[in-house]
Amino acid sequence: MKCSRLPVTNMSANFKLDLIHRPRRLRRTASLRAMVEETVLRPADFIAPLFVVDGKPAPVEIKSMPGVYRLNIADLVRECRVLHKLGVPAVALFPKLDPGLKDDEGTMALSEEALVLRAVRAVKKAVPELTILTDVALDPYTSHGHDGVLTPERDDVDNDRTVGLLGQMAVLQAQAGVDLVAPSDMMDGRIGAIRKALDAAGFTGTGIMAYSAKFNSGYYGPFREAVGSAQAAGTRLLSKATYQLNPANRREAIAEALLDEAEGADILMVKPAGLYLDIIRDVREVTRKPVAAYQISGEYAQIHAAARLGWLDLARCRHESLLAIKRAGADMILSYFAKEMAAVLRG
Ligand code: PBG
Q1: Would the pLDDT of 299 be above 80?
Q2: Whole-number Å distance between alpha carbons of 9 and 16
Q3: Cα(155) to centroid of ligand 1, in Å?
Q4: DSSP letters for 146-191
Q5: Which domains are assigned to the chain?
Q6: Mean pLDDT score of the chain, rounded to an integer?
Q7: Which residues are catalytic?
Q8: Angle between helices 338-346 and 73-85 (to 10 degrees)
Q9: Of 51, 97, 136, 296, best ligand 1 pocket probe by most atoms within 8 Å of the beta carbon
Q10: What tens digit of pLDDT does each residue of 265-277 get?
Q11: What percent of the residues of the chain are helix, what percent strand, and what percent coil, each to the nearest 5?
């Protein structure tokens, strides 16, 4: 018996599903899509990380971070004015020190004339409404590139001695006018010790944004080039595995965030962001404190590199990467895209 075959086009023309739910109804037009949009980015979501250098050099672009420059204090102040006008509420300042100023103990971190403190004073004076954050960690200051001072055996970072120094560093930053100190070192007990030190010095109003779940990531390379800790350590891949979190660990990250909250952190941060969306969501669900996420240098570099090769569209992927971080539960995002995002979002 010969079977006659219907042409394929005819078959699909007649095919009908008996569906009650057709989710595509709400994606049909631009206005419907806008009405059901769940996550919206705004300029106030962003904190702009900025790199500062001493002297009068013209802005130097960081090779692995297109569009990101090391700025002298005058240029930094100008940049902060622009960011403020664009509606970006905060900046995080990172100093790049002359290698000659670094030593084993990170002594320059405790100088009242430290570059970052002079930068803070200048920005506060020029744009007082802008919120200023500074890292509390020794890595821009040490000749070995670690976030703290080393043990006598020089085989690890000395936790308690480092925490003692970080408390003093935070007080100096508060004195200079910082609104939020941001311990990024991952030592045990540092949030409680810094809170105590700030309060004892009368800075009860200075907040702490804790780098709570900070992972031992391979994606920090471009940042280490930017602040010169890579040059100091002789590698961009210095392992910080004895203090930063193992990227494999989710429970431990939550435990760290809860410890920081208990010790008095005002804001809990997850870092990196895009590779750790599960951790952002987890932290969002265990705390009632605001949650921050840091889209780090390597995340920024990846998007730029692929865009340069013509493999990804920069504007789309930039937006999508940040939207995902907010959707995961971040209330605020540190990102090197802060300025351009604010400009785009304002239209
Ligand atoms: C150092 C610090 C790092 C970053 C912020 N503060 C790098 C590190 O721990 O080595 C990373 C930021 C980035 O990669 O954009 N305490």
Answers
A1: yes
A2: 14
A3: 21
A4: -SSPBPTTSSSB-HHHHHHHHHHHHHHHHHHT-SEEEE-S--TTHH
A5: 41-345 (3.20.20.70)
A6: 96
A7: 214, 271
A8: 30
A9: 296
A10: 999 999 999 999 9
A11: 45, 20, 35
